[in-house]
Structures are given as structure tokens and as C-alpha cells.
Amino acid sequence: MIGTFLARHQVLGLNRRTLLMERENPRTAVQLANDKVGTKAALAAAGVPVVPTLAVIRDRGELAELDWDRLPDAWVLKPNRGRQGAGILLVAGRDGEGWRSASGRHIEQSDLVAHAHTVLDGEHSAGELERDQALLEPLILPYAAVAAPVPFGLPDIRVICHHDEPVMAMMRLPTAASKGRANLHQGAIGAALDLASGQVTRALLNRTTITHHPDTGHPLLGLVVPEWPVVLAAARRCGSAIGLGYVGADLVVARGHGPLVMEVNARPGLEIQNVNGRGLCPRLRLPADGLCERDHVRGLWHDLRRGHAPGRAW
């Protein structure tokens, strides 16, 4: 019955995504996509707007020499090869002789150094790397229209492209539970975006359909991403710049900058299908057979049988 359900809704499953990646994404391109520093360089060379870089810390020696006082008041520290928001530290401003996090927590310089050590040691990185690099970027402020619904943090946009053509998109909105991070696995909201207009048509929080942000009460349906044509134009150029045929581009619409690409994913997650309430296969022009992926759909299937919101949304 699971296979019948998947075929009817033409859901892209884990195995089919793996086959798609093997066909569309060369290993060298995947390795580049997993390297945020290298990705930004390749995108910038192709004329794609990217988030600026403040510093790249390659080892503990460079960390010891970092002049923290020369950093702007607000910035971000992230692992070069991190995934799903792991290891990202948001610094929202100065707080006396230290700093404060996006959630208002006081941070001492010793805390920053200790966190950077965990990044350099590879504790937040994908794969089997023993070491990683720490990437410092300015904290980007979103357009007022995008920032209004969230308590704090930076909403971002995921656009799935196949051969440089956008096929599905969503916006991820931080919550207090996600600690300001736009990551669905950490409690952020997934909001489906209409490809033609950039308008929010549907929103899910922990696979439950919602209409308003739980922290601010701000309505979500009908929200429109500013400069949507520019967002799509930037997303379209990411795959060719990196060498990927199937790609997830993560962007922000930054105050004073416009759309910027934050990173590129060679293995974009499948949850965007739940957020949009439809499968990717028709848009990728893939046949609907052979999509039974029990590990991926077990939770969704049981939600359907229990009559939970994710099932009704489908």
C-alpha cells in the first residue's frame, strides 16, 4: 500500500534520489558543493551573488591570531563542511566586553574560542573528516517583509533546480524552538512557495499544517518573497557554476543587498515535498514507478493512518 501511495503522489524517495544524483551530479562537483568556501568562490566567479566572507580559520594557529575586536558587531561562525545547521553560531551584537547570541544569551570570547575549536576538530562536519575550517560571515538582516513574521533569526529560501530550471521551492522561517535557525529538523517552519509568484501557499511546523507563526502570531499564507524573479535567476545559475544537474540552492533576501546565495546542496532533503504537499517526480519528469522507500515514508505513512495533518495535507 505504501508503494501505491507513493506512485499516486509521485514522491521522490531516497533510492530514486540517489540514482538521480549518481546520474546528474559528478563526484567532483559534489565535493565542491560540500565545501562552502570553495562553493562561494565558484559562484562568485560565475557572477552569482553570495554572502560576503569575513574570515576563514583553517587551524588553531589562525584562530589564536584572530583579532576578535576587528569583527563587526553582528556575525556568524559556521563549519565549512557542516550540514543541517549543525555548529552554526549566530552573534547578534556586542554585550559589554563580550557578545550576545541571536536569542539574547551573553557570550564571552572564551566561549567563541571553545566553539571554534569544536568546528576545527570536525565535530559538526559531514563525512569522515578529522578536521574542518571555520567560516566567518556578517550576520545578514532580512527584508522587513520577510523578518516581520519571525521572533528572531534569518528566514531563508530553498529552491530545487534540475538542469538549471527551478522545480520546487520553500521558505524556512525560524522559531523560538529552533533558536533562530532556519532548519526544519531543529523546529523551523517550512512554507511552500508558488514558483510563479514567490507567495506562501502552505506552511508546516513539525509536519502539522499552520496558518500563523506560533511565536509572533503573524499570518504566513499570502506572504510574498521580495525580488522573487531575482531569487529564481540566482538559483538557476548555481548548478552550472558548481557542475551539478540536480541541486538545492539556499538563498536569503538581505536588507541592502537583495538576494544572496548562502550555500548549494548536492543532496537536497526530501522534506520539501511534505511542505509543498506534492511529489517532485512530475516536475523532474521522472516515472512514478519504483518509488517505494520505506525508511523515508514510514513516518508519513503512519501519520496518514492516524489521520494526522500531514496526511490530510497530501
How would you portray this structure in words?
The chain is α+β, with helices and mostly antiparallel strands and 314 residues long. It has 2 domains: 11-50 and 140-287, D-amino Acid Aminotransferase, Chain A, domain 1, CATH 3.30.470.20; 52-139, no CATH class. It is built from 12 helices and 13 strands. It has helices spanning 2-9, 14-24, 27-33, 36-45, 60-65, 109-120, 144-147, 228-242, 271-276, 281-284, 294-306, 309-313; strands spanning 55-57, 75-79, 89-95, 98-101, 106-107, 134-138, 156-162, 165-173, 189-193, 200-205, 208-210, 246-254, 258-265. The protein has a 7-stranded antiparallel beta sheet. Helix 4 crosses helix 8. The longest helix is centred in the last third of the chain and has 15 residues, at 228-242.
Write the layout of secondary structure elements.
Blueprint: H1 2-9, H2 14-24, H3 27-33, H4 36-45, E1 55-57, H5 60-65, E2 75-79, E3 89-95, E4 98-101, E5 106-107, H6 109-120, E6 134-138, H7 144-147, E7 156-162, E8 165-173, E9 189-193, E10 200-205, E11 208-210, H8 228-242, E12 246-254, E13 258-265, H9 271-276, H10 281-284, H11 294-306, H12 309-313
Antiparallel strand pairs: 1-6, 2-3, 2-6, 3-4, 4-5, 7-8, 7-12, 8-9, 9-10, 10-11, 12-13
